[in-house]
Amino acid sequence: METPSDRVPWAERIEQLLAEEGPLPIVAAGHPVLRRATVPYDGQLDDALLARFVRALRVTMRAAPGVGLAAPQVGVGLRIAVIEDPAPVPEEVRAARGREPQPFRVLVNPVYEAVGPERAAFFEGCLSVPGYQAVVARHAAVRLTGQDEHGQALDEEFTGWPARIVQHETDHLDGTLYLDRAELRSLSCNAAAARYWGQPTAEEAARALGFDLP
Question: What per-residue string of b and e applies to 83-117 under the rule 16 or more CB within 10 Å gives b?
């Protein structure tokens, strides 16, 4: 359903959004923008405004804090996302989850496809579904194509936790939340997840809560 704001040019909408200093407000599940497929980015913003928007996404992601943020999460239905993961985790978690540090990067019009049949399942959360986590089985390796903020082609293979991040953020751009792919028997508030399911893998949670892993 179209709203009055949908008829406002993208540049004007984003100028309004950036009028306030500091992190942008993150919209939560239930907001319609999170359930709509985004509009492909094809130069709706001039270079300076795009750079300002990217900086705002970066500031907001870091302040949350998170390891990725898609434009719909700040109310903007353009196919743009950012990711960054310093991976400050213990070695056993890094090894089990394949969580390697990822530099800051911008994903414009990203699309992913599976590389091989292997899937991996771990607890996952979302800044737009605050307070909860659930186990999600995702492709263990993906090929991501698209562009960066300068229009340079992106064609890269991601594995482990970085593959999970790019799938999660690209899903946002298709109107999909992680809960749509989650094993709902695993759904846990953050406090319960920390108390019971802090292990590097989800195997103990699967046994105790009664769900299958791939």
Answer: bbbeeebeeebbebbbbeebeeebbbbbebeebee
pLDDT digits (tens, 9 = 90+) for 34-72: 999 999 999 999 999 999 999 999 999 999 999 999 999
The span from the CA of 78 to the CA of 44, in Å, is 9
Tell me the average pLDDT across 185-211: 97
pTM for the structure as a whole: 0.95
Q: What is the pLDDT of residue 89?
A: 94
Find the Cα–Cα–Cα–Cα dihedral 33, 35, 39, 40, rounded to 10°.
130
Residues with a known catalytic role: 169
> Which of 72, 94, 69 has its CA nearest to residue 83?
69
Q: Who has greater pLDDT, 21 or 32?
A: 32
Cβ proximity of 77 and 49 under 8 Å: no
What residues have CB less than 8 Å from 50, skipping those under 6 apart? 149
Q: How far apart are CA 47 and CA 152, in angstroms?
A: 14
**Mean pLDDT across 121-143:** 98
Longest dimension (CA), the chain: 52
Query: Residues annotated in the binding site, as ranges?
Result: 126, 168, 172
Q: Which residue numbers belong to the known binding site for Fe cation?
A: 126, 168, 172
Strand partners, 85: 102
